[in-house]
């Protein structure tokens, strides 16, 4: 009886093979953003690179750079990018699949241009964001991530010239697929 319990424990430890120690990962992804605002309603491609430090199998910190690409309306075009820092909480379902949630801060920068008067300016901000996703283990060091993130961009009308009637408050939904390499 004792030997069968010990054998089962050894099998489960070897079989799980889920990395139970601190790890460092780098990754890159590609996805689509959907901008939701009264005046901006566009879907654009976006690119992302990230570094992740996991302290154990459940908790990690991710730093990322995201290029949101250009979005515009009849008057204004914005070209935005940002850097983020997030805490990731991961729930391993089995040795090949896990779900995760994240929350953190985005520091964004946007170049704005108004074609009608050939004017441009730069805006920046810092907003909280959240997200979640699923991670699929492809090999010992390579994972596929499918992820959704929600960002907010808020620009006060006072920062704009007279052509912009209202504050700009955009919700940016970002759905992406990434490859993550763990060292």
Automatic annotation (TrEMBL):
Domain Outer membrane protein beta-barrel per the UniProt entry, residue ranges: 4-183
Protein name, per record: Outer membrane protein beta-barrel domain-containing protein
Gene3D superfamilies annotated for this entry?
2.40.160.20
Concerning SUPFAM superfamilies, the annotation shows: OMPA-like
Recorded hits in InterPro entries, A to Z, give: Beta-barrel_OMP, OMP/PagP_B-barrel
Q: Does the keyword Magnesium apply?
A: no
Pfam families this protein is in? OMP_b-brl
List the source organism.
Answer: Cellvibrio mixtus
Keyword terms, alphabetized: Signal
